[in-house]
Amino acid sequence: MKEVNSIRIDPIVKRLLSYATSEEKVEAEYKKYTCSPNRKLFSTEVNGEIVSCIGVEFHNFEKGVIKHIAVLPIKRGSGIGRSMIKFICSKYKLKSLLAETDKDAVLFYSSLGFQITSLGEKYPGVERFLCELRTSTLT
Fold this sequence. Notes:
The protein contains four helices and seven strands, in the order βααβββαβαββ. It is α+β, with helices and mostly antiparallel strands. A seven-stranded mixed β-sheet has the order 1-2-3-4-5-7-6, sandwiched between helices.
């Protein structure tokens, strides 16, 4: 994995971020990664092509929050998401990692040992979930 810090957004990274947020917000979210010292964006390459990204906001030296995580559809289910999370936890020696997600991603986070808590219907008709991992339980 390598850190993404170019001022100009790579088209593949832009596409990946659009899977994790609305297309209208991609540019603003990307700018936060290039301008904020407590946010980092990483990408994974397979055969020289970017296939995934993970963006994390660090709240202190022991806690991180996944802001964006995305894998190209053709590469999903191959362990890339799991390896990105393990990389972040290891590189930054995190004791806890949080993510807020929808119902579609709950099984993914649960399979990694995240504790899942319903946040209820934050938006009309959309239940959201808080996923929290104590990194000592990372499977």
